[in-house]
């Protein structure tokens, strides 16, 4: 049994002769925000697809609370406590905010088809219970004013917040956020950063984050894991990672070092 909430050991994913992820090991503990960074094509989203069961691993192991995910069907990962947002929005554009977040509660519903059709007894009690949880999430994310709006009519930043709400509705133990602030303005990014910290501190959910916004990464991460060409360059606290020569070279294409260059990486790698 591992002491880590999420543990990856020597995880590899090959596509033909190409290894998109090659021998990556990392872990996430309870109460942590861990970021994965790296240039485009580094293997970050492929790694998320492996953790969330979208793709099977070629070799290596992924465990959550000591349970090997290779022994679990991909559709059951959510039941083990893995929640996720996607780089490209995957919302039901014709549904309301409430309807979209309610989808995240689906796996918890025990009502039979007949009970659901007749809407009585357990079906009605379940709906009340799950809608109550959805309202709590809406309050937490401060989107009460758009709760009944059709998602397709919302701004991009608002839709991102709805997708975050749907992921929270699955009651995750670890939440995978794939470029959650991509395309957002400064104010929206600051709001999401605040919510990420609150998700960890108030809800007790660990965060694994893929992000190109280096300011956000360095401000909120407990640890940073750096990938390039599918392999780990380094891992450590933000201040350690941003001055690592291999990280500077991966982002800037040369081996300069020093505080000035590290600042350039931090500010310019988004």
UniProtKB/TrEMBL annotation:
GO terms for molecular function: ATP binding. Keywords: ATP-binding, Nucleotide-binding, Transport. InterPro entries: AAA+_ATPase (IPR003593), ABC_AA/LPS_Transport (IPR051120), ABC_transporter-like_ATP-bd (IPR003439), ABC_transporter-like_CS (IPR017871), BCA_ABC_TP_C (IPR032823), P-loop_NTPase (IPR027417). The keyword Nucleotide-binding applies. Residues 6-254 form the ABC transporter domain. The keyword ATP-binding applies. Gene3D superfamilies: P-loop containing nucleotide triphosphate hydrolases (3.40.50.300). Pfam families: ABC_tran, BCA_ABC_TP_C. PROSITE patterns: ABC_TRANSPORTER_1 (PS00211), ABC_TRANSPORTER_2 (PS50893). SUPFAM superfamilies: P-loop containing nucleoside triphosphate hydrolases (SSF52540). This is ABC transporter ATP-binding protein. The lineage of its organism: Bacteria, Pseudomonadati, Pseudomonadota, Alphaproteobacteria, Rhodobacterales.
């Amino acid at each position: 049994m591992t002491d880590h909430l999420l543990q990856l050991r020597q995880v590899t994913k090959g596509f033909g002769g190409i290894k998109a992820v090659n021998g990556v090991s990392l872990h996430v503990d309870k109460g942590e925000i861990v970021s994965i960074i790296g240039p485009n094509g580094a293997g970050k989203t492929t790694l998320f697809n492996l953790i969330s069961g979208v793709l099977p691993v070629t070799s290596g192991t992924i465990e959550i609370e000591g349970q090997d995910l290779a022994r679990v069907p991909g559709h059951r990962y959510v039941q083990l406590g893995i929640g996720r947002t996607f780089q490209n929005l995957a919302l039901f554009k014709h549904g309301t905010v409430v309807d979209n977040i309610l989808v995240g509660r689906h796996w918890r519903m025990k009502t039979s088809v007949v009970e659901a059709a007749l809407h009585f007894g357990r079906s009605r009690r379940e709906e009340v219970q799950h809608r109550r949880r959805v309202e709590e999430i809406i309050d937490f994310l401060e989107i009460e004013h758009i709760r009944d709006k059709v998602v397709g009519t919302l701004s991009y930043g608002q839709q991102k917040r709805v997708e975050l709400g749907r992921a929270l509705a699955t009651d995750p133990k670890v939440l995978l956020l794939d470029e959650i602030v991509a395309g957002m303005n400064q104010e929206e990014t600051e709001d999401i950063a605040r919510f990420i910290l609150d998700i960890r501190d108030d809800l007790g959910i660990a965060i694994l984050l893929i992000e190109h916004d280096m300011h956000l990464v360095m401000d909120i991460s407990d640890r940073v894991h750096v990938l390039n060409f599918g392999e780990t360059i380094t891992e450590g606290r933000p201040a350690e990672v941003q001055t690592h020569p291999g990280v500077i070279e991966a982002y800037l294409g040369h081996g300069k070092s020093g505080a000035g260059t590290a600042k350039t990486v931090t500010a310019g790698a988004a």
